[in-house]
Amino acid sequence: MTLSAEDKLAVHELIALHGHLMDAGELDRMDELFAVDVVYDVTAFGAGELHGCEAIKQAALALGDRNPVGHHVTNVYVIEDADGTVRAVSKGIGINSNGSVGSVVYEDIVRREAAGWRIAYRKVKPRRAPLRP
Length: 133
Fold this sequence. Notes:
Blueprint: H1 5-23, E1 34-41, E2 49-51, H2 53-63, E3 70-80, E4 86-95, E5 101-113, E6 116-127
Parallel strand pairs: 1-6
Antiparallel strand pairs: 1-2, 3-4, 4-5, 5-6
């Protein structure tokens, strides 16, 4: 598959939708973001791998007030591997209710399904230290 400009735009829109749905608490709409068999890897935060939309929803509910009040995604980069795997890498900024801010890198594998593009795999990596060449 060769990614068209429309495909890349659709992937950008998909990644942007994540923050809107999460911040609005629309957790029953996770199927608009994620494939049925999604693996959401939050191992770096001590939560391991979440499998499926329901597990993502339950993890967000369990966090309760510790969820960010704002998920902001920037610097989205979409590439297609030689084997056809489509990857998106983006930066996330989370604003917490106490005013603190966190930064992450999202490493996604996305695929086109009957309903449109969906995230099949997401690894969330915290950014806790500045660049040190």
